[in-house]
Design brief:
alpha/beta; about 15% strand; globular
Length: about 140
């Protein structure tokens, strides 16, 4: 048996796969999708915003929902979602990611209030990270 599950976020968000119900008890959920969607606001279309929001905010919501029963059974579970410093501090060319990560922060705050004290909910709000997406 495995101690963790890795899944392709976009397939999960699009409903192309069923989230495996492998564990009765889940101690931690970490939802860290990676995307870089930078550009001039004037060049984006509504579909760009929808896709970014779907990956970040809707994906986080669905992952928490899929794991909620197992997290409740843990008694000391944690959820970590990915935000960004651009949700609080605007940056040029970051309107898409700033908007979707702001929604993630709203989800984190509200879930933290609703699920406490049995489940801790936090967000990582990083800046630029040296990864292959950043090249």
């Amino acid at each position: 048996s495995s101690d963790w599950i890795e899944f392709e976020v976009l397939n999960f968000v699009d409903g192309d796969i069923d989230f495996p119900e492998t564990f009765e008890t889940i101690d931690a959920l970490v939802y860290l999708p990676g995307s870089v969607n930078l550009g001039l606001f004037s060049r984006y279309q509504a579909e760009d915003m929808i896709q970014d929001f779907k990956l970040n905010a809707v994906g986080a919501f669905l992952a928490v929902k899929a794991c909620h029963a197992g997290l409740k059974k843990s008694g000391n579970a944690s959820i970590t979602l990915m935000s960004s410093v651009v949700a609080q501090n605007g940056m040029t060319l970051h309107s898409m990611v700033g908007t979707s990560k702001g929604a993630v922060e709203g989800l984190v705050r509200n879930l933290a209030a609703e699920l406490a004290p049995k489940i801790r909910v936090n967000a990582l709000a990083l800046s630029l990270v040296d990864t292959p997406l950043f090249l």
